[in-house]
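We store sequence, tokenised fold; for instance:
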Amino acid sequence: MGYDASALMFGSVLSLYREEIYGLALIMLLVIGFVIVFYKEISSMIFHMKIAEISGIKTRPMMYVLLFMIALMVALTMPIVGGLLLYVWLVTPATIAYQFFGTLKQMMIASPIIAGNISLFGTWLAFTFNLPIAPLSAVLFAFGFLVAVIISPKRKISREKYGAVQKE
């Protein structure tokens, strides 16, 4: 399989083979299963590596397995969605979810839902208006992040906190 620079940057979602879809589905199930089985270990490693080590978690092998699974998913999805959209998919859904949710579990559930909805909407818009899917989806993710930051409950300034006097 040879890929040109344009395909690696922007991907080619429409030229997927059935085997690639099956491979991605299998890896996705493995990753989801791993996260479900080792959720406590992963969350403790995310928050504080030294405390995770002290509590008996073998952090080095766990970290290597996590990095291997991330590298495998990146390698498999790079020719499909492209480097631009892959980076956007890795970072932006989690940052959008962070604006509205406070726990790691809520963010891990909300991030793929956010990514799926924005991606489906981007694909629909791309087909409707005959636009490229990956760059349009990247723009929609950026717009979604902007809206999330503007309306985020974490960004609200409390009047009581800063001593503003309310009229009665």
